[in-house]
Amino acid sequence: MSENYPEFTRAEDSLDPSDVLERMRNQDAIYYFKSDMLSTWMVTRYEDVRELLKDERLRTPSIEKRIASFSEDQQAQLEGLRSALTVSALADGDSHRVVRNALKDYFTPSSINKMRPRVREVTASIFEPLDPKKPVDFVNAISYRLPAVVIAEILGVAREDAPKFMAWSKDMIKIYKQLEFSGFLEAQDSTVALTEFVTAIVNDRIENPRESADLANVFAELVKDGKATARQMASVGATLLMAGHESTAAQISKFVDAVLSDPAQKSELFADLSKLPHAIAEALRINSTSWAVRTALEDVEFGGVTFKKGQSVYLSIMSANRDEKVFPKSSDLDLKRGNARTHLAFSHGPRYCLGANLAQMEIQELANYLFGNYPGLEVVPGTREHQLLPMLRHKLTRLDVVLAPRGGN
């Protein structure tokens, strides 16, 4: 151990964490961090993170286990949250495997491609009422709206209910973005409201079946077959909403910001939109700020250290995706980077993100519409705003753009 890395718990150091992550990769690639807030192993190099993401001896902790780390009084205050998230699409275990197997066919590339026409319609409808000559907050008016409508329709919810989903999702994400009890408590009411809402949808679909390609039918079949309860399926639906909305919205905003911040890359991409899939992969690599949280099921010897049974292990996707040994000049957005698609933004191995194909398709369709229809697109100077979070994470919360500047196209 070379230093204490106090930056991990100081949110003000989260906007540009490149230096501290580079120091860790070079000096303390596998490091045991201990503070009043958190005690965990941290893994930072690409090859190590990639290997451990597929290691079955490390499992994603359930929300219930995370709640159990708080005091008895705090746990009692979070009973509603604990009962609401009885099964998580992000955690492990037998119920997780049943759900994942039931959902995997829904998110294959061929299934996602069938959704493209609808996503294009939704994208166009979002831009239609906007005045291209006036500034618009891209984050809240555009990037947050598309995935909210898409995931709502996937879950079998009417489009007019999408604003509810957006509000619930912004609260629910605090469970995964914050370490303190306060974040869990703030997320509780919205999480309970959402699971009750989805429970009602599933029960209605059981009682009033109809032909539909949405996930409400998939959930209803699992309940009717005795493989899950409506409450469990609502918990899965809530988790899918959070992952499918918040994560995708954040990546859309960061992708557009990254492109507009680099005039050379912007010119190259706008001149040839066939490069979008590769550009999106490169942006996903450079913009990932996540940690994959795992718990050791047994003593695990790795890289010269031992993760003791029950210890927490944080795998830094952000650091792995900026490992200079794998991605030279890793802080640069490079549309010609040959290995951009080997990024770990959607994890790796058996817990690879189910919604990866959907997220990439949504980003591509929105970017294709935006860049294709508004070649004069510009950021309004001084309008970038970020929420800084512990663990070297940050979130773009505002980015004003003018779609077609005066005198532009």
Chain-wise SSE layout:
Blueprint: H1 18-27, E1 30-34, E2 39-43, H2 46-53, E3 58-59, H3 63-67, H4 72-77, H5 79-84, H6 94-103, H7 109-127, E4 136-137, H8 138-143, H9 145-154, H10 162-172, H11 174-177, H12 181-207, H13 215-224, H14 230-260, H15 263-271, H16 276-287, E5 291-296, E6 300-302, E7 305-307, E8 312-316, H17 317-320, H18 356-373, E9 378-379, E10 385-389, E11 393-398, E12 400-402
Parallel strand pairs: 2-8
Antiparallel strand pairs: 1-2, 3-5, 4-12, 5-8, 6-7, 9-12, 10-11
Question: Care to describe what's here?
Answer:
The chain has 409 residues and is an alpha+beta fold. It has one domain (6-402): Cytochrome p450, CATH 1.10.630. Helices cover 50% and strands 11% of the residues. It has helices spanning 18-27, 46-53, 63-67, 72-77, 79-84, 94-103, 109-127, 138-143, 145-154, 162-172, 174-177, 181-207, 215-224, 230-260, 263-271, 276-287, 317-320, 356-373, and strands at 30-34, 39-43, 58-59, 136-137, 291-296, 300-302, 305-307, 312-316, 378-379, 385-389, 393-398, 400-402. The chain has a 5-stranded mixed β-sheet with strand order 1-2-8-5-3. Strand 10 and strand 11 form a beta hairpin. Helix 9 (145-154) packs across helix 10 (162-172), helix 10 runs antiparallel to helix 12 (181-207) and helix 10 (162-172) crosses helix 14. The protein is globular. The N and C termini lie far apart (55 Å). The mean pLDDT is 88.
